[in-house]
Design a protein that fits this description.
Elements (H helix, E strand, L loop, with lengths): L1 E4 L6 E4 L10 E6 L5 E5 L9 H26 L5 E4 L12 E2 L11 E12 L6 E13 L5 E16 L4 E12 L10 H10 L7 E10 L1 H4 L5 E9 L1 H5 L3 H15 L1
Antiparallel strand pairs: 1-2, 3-4, 5-7, 6-7, 7-10, 8-9, 8-11, 9-10, 11-12
């Protein structure tokens, strides 16, 4: 920058030239005691000489932050694992898991039957996950594939862990509970299905629908629970073996009491 002052008159001549290398924009505020102008360099975002450099820096930082969040979400957000169920089995021999009671006045209380399943969980996550509980809700289906309202079950496994890209197998006990429906037109739907699965020379398998709910503390605070639906079939006649005649008689007696 060059400055020229004419002392023969009170007129001050200011010659302003931008410096091509530093590229500073000069803004004059006032003149000093010698008559020369004071100036400062204009700044953008407090510390950048040009608006272009300000935009480049902040856009770069924003891009880096977005990439970090995306990578963290991809690695840490839990994926729904692959779950395979074994055929249901009786955890005890014979009918030891069957609990029922016929009252002295001829009424019939609920009866329950204990079964168990092995479920294998294959994790596809990059990090190890911990589940505070895994619960299973089980529903019996009628001969038309609809849920039977008075025969269902539930099982829970607590404190399960899923190491990243590994497979774990857990055994879940399930208690199936039957509640009788009295004086139903057409008969109790559950008794129809159970009789079809036990009585006769060609018994049918029981079709059961289930919903597995996995509660992960990592995301449970959001209200989200991993739910895995599915279905399986149970060969009840094979499961109870030589106890079939007793169960058939029990079902007939229950039918007589509630109808």
């Amino acid at each position: 920058m060059s400055r020229v002052q004419n002392n023969s008159s009170s007129l001050t001549i200011e010659a302003i030239q931008e410096e091509p290398i530093r590229r500073k924009t000069v803004v004059f505020r006032e003149t000093d005691i010698d008559g020369f102008p004071k100036y400062r360099t204009k700044r953008y975002c407090c510390c950048f000489n040009t608006r272009k450099s300000c935009c480049i820096v902040w856009l770069s930082l924003s891009f880096v932050l977005v990439c970090c969040f995306a990578i963290t979400g991809f690695v840490a957000f839990p994926r729904i694992p692959s779950i395979k169920l074994s055929d249901p089995f009786s955890p005890v021999e014979g009918l030891a898991g069957l609990n029922y009671q016929i009252q002295p006045n001829g009424t019939f209380s609920d009866f329950s039957y204990d079964i168990a399943i092995n479920f294998t969980i294959a994790s596809t996550n990059y990090i190890d996950l911990y589940a505070s509980q895994i619960s299973t809700q089980v529903y019996l289906q009628d001969l038309n594939g609809r849920k039977v309202p008075n025969f269902n079950g539930m099982g829970i496994v607590y404190n399960a862990s899923f190491p990243g890209f590994q497979t774990r197998t857990y055994t879940m006990p399930i208690t199936m509970v039957y509640s009788p429906m009295y004086k139903v037109v057409g008969g109790d739907p559950t008794l129809k299905v159970l009789n079809a699965s036990i009585a006769g020379s060609n018994p049918q398998k029981l079709n059961i629908q289930y919903d597995i709910h996995i509660v992960l503390p990592l995301i449970s605070w959001t209200g989200y629970t991993i739910t895995v639906p599915g279905s399986f079939s149970v060969d009840v006649a094979e499961m109870i073996g030589d106890q079939r005649p007793f169960v058939v008689q029990l079902l007939d007696k229950i039918s007589q009491v509630i109808n």
